[in-house]
C-alpha cells in the first residue's frame, strides 16, 4: 500500500510537470503569435508586453529599449503597478534592468519585499533592451522563469529588429518623399511591374502641364510624354540591364503639344515595398536650342543666312565621298564695291541678300548656295556634269544681269563665275574651291562671264608650287631687281619715259623675265608684295634721277588685283610724298582686259590717281574688248598698240590698217600713241610714218639696269634739283 501511494505521488508530480510544460509551451506559442502579428507596426512593443504575461505572469512588467547610442534605457511600454512608468529614463548599469543590460545576463532579485526579474533582449548586432518583471510576492521568480523569458526574448528580439528596420525604412521613405516633392527638378515614379506612374512632383506638373490626377495610374506612353517611343524601350532595356542610367538625352512632349529636351537620370529602387523606377529630368530645351543656334551660326552666313564655307565643304565632301561627284561654281560680283562705296553698307548688304535669294530660287533640287565672304558666292550641284554646269552658270549670269531693287534703288551688277568639276570619290573640297577660284579669276580677266577650270590655269601643280615657294623665298632674300626699257619720243628723238620691269635673279636659272613669274604671282597672294616692290623701287629711282636733275618718267604695270585694291591710292600717295617725287614723273600702264574687269570700281581708282598728276596708259591696245565709248570716259593720256600688230607691220597689210586706224582714233580722242614691240629699223620707220608719237622695243633698247640706262641719257645738268 505504501509503495502504491509513493508511486501515485510520483505519477501526479510528473503529470503536473508535463501539464506545466504544456501550458508553458502553449503560452510561449501564443506569445510568439502575438509578437509576430505586431512585429511590423508600432504595436510591436505592446505585443511583447502582452505576450510576456502569457509566459511568466507578474504584477508589473515593462519593456525597456536602449537609446542614445546605448547610454540609457527608456521604458517603452509597461503594465501593472500603481502608475505607469512609460518614458522613464534609466542610466545604463543602474537598477536590475540596467545591470542585466550591461552584463548581457538575466538578473533575479528577491529581497523579502518584492521579486524582480530582468532579461536582456539580444538583437542580431546589439542588445536592444531589457524585459523587466516585478511582483510583490518575494521569491516569485526563479531560474526556470528566467530560462522561459530568455527563450521568449529571442522572438522578441526578432520583433524589435523588424520594428527598427520598418522604422528606418519608413523614415527613409519619408525623407525620400520630402526630397522628391521639394527638390526643384521634375521627377516621377513608376512601378516596374506595370510601368504605371505612382507619384509625380510639382516640378513635373509644371514642366509637362499635367495635374497629378491626370497622370497617376497611367503609363508615360498612355500620357504621351515621349516623342520617340522606341527611345523609351531602349531606356527600359538599359535599366533592366544595369539598374540605372545617367545623362540620357530624350525628347519629351508637353500637354499643349510643345516639345522639349531633357537629360534623364533613372534609378531602380524599392518604394513603399514595391520595386519602382525613379526618373529625374533636367530640362535642357534652352541649352539645346542655344547649341543648335551656335551650330547653325558656325555653318551659316550671318548676313544672308546662307550656308558658309564650312557647311559647303561638308556637303561637297558627302557628295563626293558618296560617289555623286558634282560641279562647284565660285562667283564674284562685278561692280559691287561701287554700290557699297556710293550708297553705303546697308544698301550693299541688302544687295547681297537679294543676290542670294535670286540665285537660290532657280537652282536644281539638292544644290547648295553658300556665301564665302565679301561679294563671293559659291554653288555646288551634286551629280552635275559639264553640260549641266554650263547651263546653270549661264542662267546665273543672266539672272544677275537683271536689275536688283534694294529699297527704292535700281542697281545693276554683273557676275564672273569659275567652274570646277568634282570627280566621284577623288576630289577634295579645298582643292575644288581653289580650282573654281582660279577659273573665276580667269573669267574675270578675260571678261568671258564664266569659265571652266583647266590645268594650264593652275599655279598649283607640283612644279608651280615649287616655283611659288622659290619666288616667295627669293623676294625675301632680295633676288628681285628692276630693269628699265626706255620709250623713244619719235618727235624729239629723246627718251621721255622708261618702263620699270621686274626681273628675278634666280640662283639656279639665272635672270628671269617678268613673263616667267608675274602670272604666277597674280594667281597667288604674291602679286601685292611684288607690286609694292616695283612701286617702291621705281619711285625711289625717280627720286634719285630727280635729285640729279633728270625728269625721265617711269612707267609701271598694274594688274587687275592692283586696280581693284582699295589701298592702292593711299600707298602711291604715301610713297610719292616720302620720296618727294611729283605724280607727273609716274605713269601706270593698264591692259584693256583689266579695265573691263569691274570697270566702275577701276574707274574710281584711276580718277584718284589722275588727280595726283600721274599719267595713265592703256597697254596692249587692240587686244582687248574695250569700247571707244568706255575709253573716252577713262582719264588716260596714251595708248600702247599691242605688239602683235606692230611686229607684223612689215609683212601683213591688215596689221598696218589696224595700227593706222588705232592711231587715228587715239589722236581723235586726244591720246598719244606708243608702238611697242618695235624689233627692227624698218618697223621703226613705219611707225614714224603712220604717226605714232613714241616707240618701244628691242630696235631702240632692251631692258637694262638703271645704271646702264643712265649711260644712254644726256649728261647730267650742271645744277641738279635739290631734294
| Fraction of residues in β-strands | 15-25%
Mean of residue pLDDT values: 84
Would you report the number of β strands? 27
For the record, give the distance between the C-alpha atoms at the N and C termini, rounded to a whole number: 169 Å
Backbone shape: rod-shaped
Helix content: 40-55%
Radius of gyration: 53 Å
Structural class: alpha+beta
The biggest sheet, with number of strands, parallel, antiparallel or mixed sense and barrel status, is:
8 strands, mixed, barrel
User: What is the number of helical segments per DSSP (H or I, 4+ residues)?
Assistant: 26
Poorly predicted spans: 718-723
Strand order of the largest sheet: 19-20-22-23-24-25-26-27
Describe the structure.
It is a single chain. With 723 residues, this protein is α+β, with helices and mostly antiparallel strands. It is built from 26 helices and 27 strands. A hairpin with an 8-residue loop joins strand 2 (72-80) and strand 3. Helix 1 packs parallel to helix 4.
What's this, in brief?
The chain is built from 26 helices and 27 strands. The longest helix is centred in the first third of the chain and has 40 residues, at 143-182. The radius of gyration is 53 Å and the shape is rod-shaped.
Amino acid at each position: 500500500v505504501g509503495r502504491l501511494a509513493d508511486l501515485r505521488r510520483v505519477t501526479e508530480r510528473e503529470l503536473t510537470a508535463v501539464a506545466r510544460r504544456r501550458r508553458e509551451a502553449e503560452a510561449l506559442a501564443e506569445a510568439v503569435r502575438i509578437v509576430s502579428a505586431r512585429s511590423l507596426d508600432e504595436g510591436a512593443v505592446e505585443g511583447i508586453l502582452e505576450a510576456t504575461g502569457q509566459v511568466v505572469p507578474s504584477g508589473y512588467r515593462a519593456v525597456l529599449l536602449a537609446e542614445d547610442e546605448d547610454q540609457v534605457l527608456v521604458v517603452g511600454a509597461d503594465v501593472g503597478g500603481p502608475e505607469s512608468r512609460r518614458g522613464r529614463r534609466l542610466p545604463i548599469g543602474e537598477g536590475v534592468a540596467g545591470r542585466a543590460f550591461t552584463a548581457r545576463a538575466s538578473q533575479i532579485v528577491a529581497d523579502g519585499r518584492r521579486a524582480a526579474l530582468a532579461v536582456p533582449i539580444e538583437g542580431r548586432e546589439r542588445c536592444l533592451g531589457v524585459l523587466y518583471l516585478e511582483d510583490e510576492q518575494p521569491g516569485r521568480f526563479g531560474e526556470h522563469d528566467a530560462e522561459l523569458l530568455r527563450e521568449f526574448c529571442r522572438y522578441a528580439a526578432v520583433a524589435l529588429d523588424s520594428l527598427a528596420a520598418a522604422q528606418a525604412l519608413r523614415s527613409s521613405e519619408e525623407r525620400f518623399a520630402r526630397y522628391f516633392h521639394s527638390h526643384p527638378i521634375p521627377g516621377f515614379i513608376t512601378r516596374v511591374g506595370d510601368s504605371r506612374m505612382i507619384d509625380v512632383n510639382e516640378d513635373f506638373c509644371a514642366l509637362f502641364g499635367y495635374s497629378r490626377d491626370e497622370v497617376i495610374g497611367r503609363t508615360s506612353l498612355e500620357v504621351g510624354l515621349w516623342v520617340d517611343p522606341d527611345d523609351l524601350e531602349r531606356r527600359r532595356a538599359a535599366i533592366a540591364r544595369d539598374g540605372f542610367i545617367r545623362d540620357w538625352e530624350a525628347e519629351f512632349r508637353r500637354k499643349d503639344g510643345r516639345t522639349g529636351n531633357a537629360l534623364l537620370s533613372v534609378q531602380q529602387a524599392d518604394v513603399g515595398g514595391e520595386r519602382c523606377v525613379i526618373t529625374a529630368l533636367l530640362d535642357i530645351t534652352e541649352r539645346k536650342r542655344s547649341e543648335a543656334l551656335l551650330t547653325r551660326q558656325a555653318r551659316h552666313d550671318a548676313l544672308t543666312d546662307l550656308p558658309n564655307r564650312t557647311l559647303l565643304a561638308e556637303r561637297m565632301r558627302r557628295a563626293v565621298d558618296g560617289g555623286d561627284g558634282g560641279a562647284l561654281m565660285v562667283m564674284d560680283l562685278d561692280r559691287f564695291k561701287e554700290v557699297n562705296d556710293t550708297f553705303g553698307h546697308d544698301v550693299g548688304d541688302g544687295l547681297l541678300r537679294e543676290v542670294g535669294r535670286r540665285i537660290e530660287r532657280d537652282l536644281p533640287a539638292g544644290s547648295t548656295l553658300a556665301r564665302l565672304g565679301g561679294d563671293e558666292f559659291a554653288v555646288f550641284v551634286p551629280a552635275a556634269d559639264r553640260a549641266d554646269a554650263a547651263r546653270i552658270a549661264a542662267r546665273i549670269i543672266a539672272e544677275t544681269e537683271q536689275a536688283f531693287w534694294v529699297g527704292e534703288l535700281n542697281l545693276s551688277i554683273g557676275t564672273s563665275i569659275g567652274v570646277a568639276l568634282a570627280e566621284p570619290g577623288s576630289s577634295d573640297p579645298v582643292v575644288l574651291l581653289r580650282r573654281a577660284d582660279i577659273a573665276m579669276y580667269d573669267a574675270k580677266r578675260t571678261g568671258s562671264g564664266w569659265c571652266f577650270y583647266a590645268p594650264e590655269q593652275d599655279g598649283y601643280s607640283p612644279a608651280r608650287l615649287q616655283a611659288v615657294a622659290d619666288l616667295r623665298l627669293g623676294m625675301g632674300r632680295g633676288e628681285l631687281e628692276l630693269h628699265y626699257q626706255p620709250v623713244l619720243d619719235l618727235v624729239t628723238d629723246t627718251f621721255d619715259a622708261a618702263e620699270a620691269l621686274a626681273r628675278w635673279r634666280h640662283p639656279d636659272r639665272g635672270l628671269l623675265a617678268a613673263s616667267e613669274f608675274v602670272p604666277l604671282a597674280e594667281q597667288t597672294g604674291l602679286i601685292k608684295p611684288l607690286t609694292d616692290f616695283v612701286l617702291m623701287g621705281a619711285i625711289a629711282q625717280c627720286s634719285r634721277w630727280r635729285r640729279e636733275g633728270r625728269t625721265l618718267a617711269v612707267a609701271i604695270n598694274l594688274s587687275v588685283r592692283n586696280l581693284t585694291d582699295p589701298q592702292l591710292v593711299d600707298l602711291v600717295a604715301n610713297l610719292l610724298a616720302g620720296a618727294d617725287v611729283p605724280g607727273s614723273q609716274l605713269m601706270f600702264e593698264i591692259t584693256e582686259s583689266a579695265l573691263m574687269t569691274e570697270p566702275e570700281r577701276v574707274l574710281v581708282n584711276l580718277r584718284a590717281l589722275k588727280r595726283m598728276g600721274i599719267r595713265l596708259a592703256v597697254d596692249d591696245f587692240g587686244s582687248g574688248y574695250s569700247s571707244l565709248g568706255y575709253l573716252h570716259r577713262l582719264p588716260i593720256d596714251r595708248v600702247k598698240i599691242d605688239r602683235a600688230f606692230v611686229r607684223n607691220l612689215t609683212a601683213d597689210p591688215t596689221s598696218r590698217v589696224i595700227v593706222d586706224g588705232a592711231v587715228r582714233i587715239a589722236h581723235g580722242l586726244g591720246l598719244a600713241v606708243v608702238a611697242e614691240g618695235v624689233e627692227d629699223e624698218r618697223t621703226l620707220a613705219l611707225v614714224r610714218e603712220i604717226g605714232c608719237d613714241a616707240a618701244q622695243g628691242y630696235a631702240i633698247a632692251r631692258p637694262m639696269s638703271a645704271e646702264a640706262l643712265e649711260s644712254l641719257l644726256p649728261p647730267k645738268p650742271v645744277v641738279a634739283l635739290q631734294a
